[in-house]
What we know:
By secondary structure, the chain is α/β, with parallel strands linked by helices. The chain has 4 helices and 5 strands. Helix content is 37%, strand content 14%.
Amino acid sequence: MLGAVDSVANGLSFCAGSLGSRADNDVVSMAREFANRINFVHLRNVSVEPDRSFNEAEHLGGDVNMVDMISILRAEERRRAASGRADSVIPMRPDHGHLLADDIHKKTNPGYSLIGRLKGLAELRGIITAVDQLQGA
């Protein structure tokens, strides 16, 4: 599909959790291979069970290595910025937070609790800050 219209506007919405739900997918390698065509990232994580079922996991606790994912994405953002692209920032969204604290007693759509998603966002922003410092960004 990407080759059919070879344009930066023809890119991927990359969901780490959906891709990670198959144990035979190497999500980090996929992100590395397609980094220059990723236009949006859904940073969610899953744990795959031996029977091939999967469960939503903590953002930092599933089978997808979020440190490696974010390292690849931030390097791609810097590459895009260096080449003068106005769309150098890749939108990233944490999702599928767990029910925590006050959210336990509120009516929410599954995976969309406020506090659990904020926890995931804080964890991922911590990784972004560390990756940027370690990569000299």
